């Protein structure tokens, strides 16, 4: 009977793929993360705590334990959708824990956006989507015949973007020719499927790849709305904290604009915490399917603005005083979109939504 005290912890299923095709994986109770891996415990309220590798990890009721391998990982990113032969071979790793941070950015990403398993392919697709969006909107620049100075600025901006959005840092990034490995017919079919999916209200076209020739998945409002609201609930307080620390304006006008942005974000966060149930118009009164779809689309669009806010925060961390007025102008646009979509998520009808604006 005493032998039970010396029983080894059972390895987690598929744990051997950590560090290869899987970045993070939910571990069953009583299992141990493989060698070289770390563990993150995610509570039911989204709070996280980082643990080093241990022989056996026990979770409290309502907690989920993720084992993850910090990497490095390598992925071929396509920065421009219209030029699939141009690639960036990028090596990245989960950032080392910051002892001064109350919550690590990668841990927040796991808590807010991952459900059970984070595949390397899914993370690479999300990174590629964030990179494409920043290049398309001018947040990052990668011009033809890039000079060394322009390349270094791009590398620095990419590193900040990936850290602020996903909690990973870039180890290396080099241009590669992907022409021989690309099927242009397949690329066009993927693009058409993603656009059709986006029109149904699902994820933006640059975020989630769809197999070629596959029909666009029907938008299911309940799970999509729940995922979006979870992101807003968990990430908005961390975003506000990052905005306070990213820049300390010396000019009085910039300081006042920063404080006004923080106040507006705080009100948005309070509104998210008190968001009505998707399926109810009032207690005991069900809401129609079309109204549920409209509400869920607003919550998804709010998450697009949330992604833009993280990207802007990455730029603020590198900005000088002279750039703050322009960046705060972009922040005001993003916050206005957040406010409008959160009001739309709360409204019962399109007419009521217009009145709130």
Short description:
By secondary structure, the chain is of the alpha+beta class. It has helices spanning 105-113, 120-137, 148-166, 184-199, 221-246, 252-273, 289-316, 324-346, 350-356, and strands at 22-27, 38-42, 48-51, 64-68, 73-77, 86-94, 117-119, 168-177, 280-282, 285-286.
Structure in words:
Helix 1 (105-113) runs antiparallel to helix 5 (221-246). This protein has a five-stranded antiparallel β-sheet. Strands 5-6-8 form a three-stranded antiparallel β-sheet, with helices on one face. Strands 9-10 form a two-stranded antiparallel ribbon. The chain has helices at residues 105-113, 120-137, 148-166, 184-199, 221-246, 252-273, 289-316, 324-346, 350-356, and strands at residues 22-27, 38-42, 48-51, 64-68, 73-77, 86-94, 117-119, 168-177, 280-282, 285-286. By secondary structure, it is of the alpha+beta class. The protein contains nine helices and ten strands.
H/E element string? EEEEEEHEHHEHHHEEHHH
Shape: globular
Low-confidence stretches: 1-9, 202-216
Query: What is the gyration radius calculated from CA atoms?
Result: 22 Å
Q: What is the assembly state of the chains in this entry? A: single chain
Strand fraction: 5-15%
Q: Note the total helix count.
A: 9
N- to C-terminal separation?
Answer: 69 Å
Strand element count: 10
Mind describing the biggest β-sheet? 5 strands, antiparallel
- What is the helix fraction of residues, given as a range? 40-55%
Determine the structural class based on helices, strands and strand pairing.
alpha+beta
* Average pLDDT taken over every residue: 83
Strand order of the largest sheet: 3-2-4-1-7
């Amino acid at each position: 009977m005493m032998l039970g005290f010396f029983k080894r912890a059972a390895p987690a299923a598929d744990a051997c793929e950590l560090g290869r095709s899987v970045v993070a994986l939910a571990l069953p109770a009583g299992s141990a993360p493989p060698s070289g891996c770390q563990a993150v415990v995610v509570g039911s309220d989204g709070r996280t705590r980082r643990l080093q590798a241990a022989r056996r990890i026990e979770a409290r009721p309502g907690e989920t334990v993720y084992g993850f391998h910090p990497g490095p990982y390598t992925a071929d990113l396509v920065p421009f959708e219209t030029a699939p032969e141009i690639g960036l071979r990028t090596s990245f790793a989960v950032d080392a824990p910051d002892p001064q941070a109350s919550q690590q950015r990668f841990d927040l990403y796991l808590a807010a956006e991952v459900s059970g398993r984070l595949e390397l392919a899914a993370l690479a697709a999300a990174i590629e989507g964030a990179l494409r969006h920043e290049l398309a909107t001018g947040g990052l620049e990668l011009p033809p015949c890039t000079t060394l100075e322009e390349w270094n600025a791009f590398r620095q901006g990419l590193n900040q973007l990936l850290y602020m959005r996903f909690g990973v840092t870039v180890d290396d990034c080099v241009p590669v020719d992907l022409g021989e490995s690309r099927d242009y017919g397949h690329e066009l079919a993927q693009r058409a499927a993603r656009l059709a999916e986006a029109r149904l209200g699902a994820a933006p076209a640059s975020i989630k790849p769809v197999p070629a020739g596959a029909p666009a998945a029907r938008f299911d409002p309940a799970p999509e709305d729940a995922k979006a609201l979870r992101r807003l609930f968990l990430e908005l307080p961390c975003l506000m904290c990052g905005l306070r620390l990213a820049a300390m304006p010396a000019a009085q006008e910039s300081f006042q604009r920063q404080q006004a942005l923080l106040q507006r974000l705080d009100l948005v966060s309070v509104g998210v915490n008190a968001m009505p149930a998707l399926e109810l118009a009032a207690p005991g009164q069900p809401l129609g399917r079309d109204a549920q779809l409209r509400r869920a689309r607003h919550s998804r669009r709010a998450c697009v603005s949330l992604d833009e806010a993280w990207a802007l925060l990455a730029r603020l961390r590198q900005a000088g005083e002279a750039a703050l007025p322009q960046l705060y102008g972009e922040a005001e646009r993003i916050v206005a979109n957040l406010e409008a979509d959160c009001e739309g998520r709360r409204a019962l009808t399109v007419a009521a939504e217009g009145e709130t604006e």
